[in-house]
Recover the amino acids of this structure.
């Protein structure tokens, strides 16, 4: 089982329909909206699927969703194999789950199209500025051990780097598997 966590704020949850189109059904998604937003919750309910859990926080944290990533990692169950941390407005191609599930590596990374680069490919490599959130899957026990520490803008990099250093093995998948919006 692949767990996917995604903070959200006031826009369409593109990640939900992209996951519902997956060729492999072995995933579950948790989306947490930054602050109260009944309209967002109502929109997510349209995608009624038991694998999707949606909620909101009592107040807006306003720190790029990092507080929500930290909370969702801490609350995540121990069952399941790996975790992918993404954003609610990112899109995964229909072969995404099938491509990453069942791998023996503790750390996986792949290429994406990225809006910061005019939707040109961002080829993943372990170097600051060359990998972004939604380009990595990590063994759940490693992700929980490392935890989300920083609340700075570029907090995804120290998390991904620490998980990479903790992992015994990794695999770079030379394939575009998603779109980062």
């Amino acid at each position: 089982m692949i767990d996917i966590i995604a903070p959200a704020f006031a826009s369409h949850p593109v990640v939900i329909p992209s996951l519902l189109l997956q060729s492999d059904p072995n995933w579950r998604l948790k989306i947490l909206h930054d602050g109260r937003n009944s309209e967002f919750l109502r929109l997510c309910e349209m995608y009624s699927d038991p694998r999707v859990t949606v909620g909101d926080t009592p107040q807006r944290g306003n720190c790029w969703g990092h507080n929500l990533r930290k909370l969702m990692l801490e609350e995540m169950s121990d069952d399941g194999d790996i975790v992918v941390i993404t954003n609610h407005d990112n899109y995964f191609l229909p072969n995404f789950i099938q491509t990453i599930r069942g791998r023996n590596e503790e750390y996986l990374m792949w290429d994406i199209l990225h809006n910061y680069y005019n939707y040109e490919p961002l080829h993943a490599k372990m170097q600051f500025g060359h990998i972004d959130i939604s380009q990595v899957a990590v063994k759940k026990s490693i992700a929980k051990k490392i935890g989300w520490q920083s609340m700075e803008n570029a907090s995804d990099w120290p998390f991904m780097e620490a998980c990479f250093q903790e992992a015994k093995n990794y695999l770079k998948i030379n394939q575009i598997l998603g779109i980062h919006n």
Observations:
- Helices lie at 15-20, 38-45, 66-75, 96-100, 140-146, 156-166.
- The longest helix spans residues 156-166.
